[in-house]
Fold:
Amino acid sequence: IEDDWYNFTALNLPENHPARDMQDTFYISKNPDWLLRTHTSSVQIREMEKKELPLRIICPGRVYRNETISARAHCFFNQVEGLYIAENVSFADLKQTLYFFVKEMFGEDVEVRFRPSYFPFTEPSAEMDISCLICKGTGCNICKKTGWVEILGCGMVHPKVLENCGIDPEKYTGFAFGMGVERVAMLKYEVKDLRLFSENDLRFLQQFKAAL
Structure:
């Protein structure tokens, strides 16, 4: 459970901001300011408020979104976000970090591409795709017949977000990224239905003992 400030407002999503419609949210009926967090970015805000710089953190956690459950999406999932704040951090640093992660996770042969995107809390923003490991690029339901699967969103931390946390955006810059754990595991182990990760079927889960 999170409050509106940490989940939305501090992340450059003030009340009535149109980008709030990008994530359908589960609100707590007893208090309209409380909600089930839609991302682990709220952890980033709490850490930035401490102003202990430079800052390097990884934020794992369960998140909730009012989405239709399908082979590609679920109403709850585990997310991992990364944040790096220091002097002279650049988009090149972000790209190199993510390229290294993808090659280590999926192997040297995986193809990678960045696409311009929009997130209120980063500017510039991008999404990172990899070649579909389920169909090997021939086209399937997971990659929507494109041969590519989006695995994460990323960007340079928006100056307004830094200001909201009391950090001088003229002195410090930073990058952030976030990805769904199940989506990464789905591609890593060539699982064709995301729902299998949340159904508690031991026949499925026991396959991953060696990965734990």
Summary: The helical segments are 4-7, 41-48, 91-106, 159-164, 181-188, 202-205. The radius of gyration is 18 Å. The beta strands are 2-3, 34-35, 55-64, 76-86, 112-119, 122-131, 148-157, 173-180. The mean pLDDT is 92.
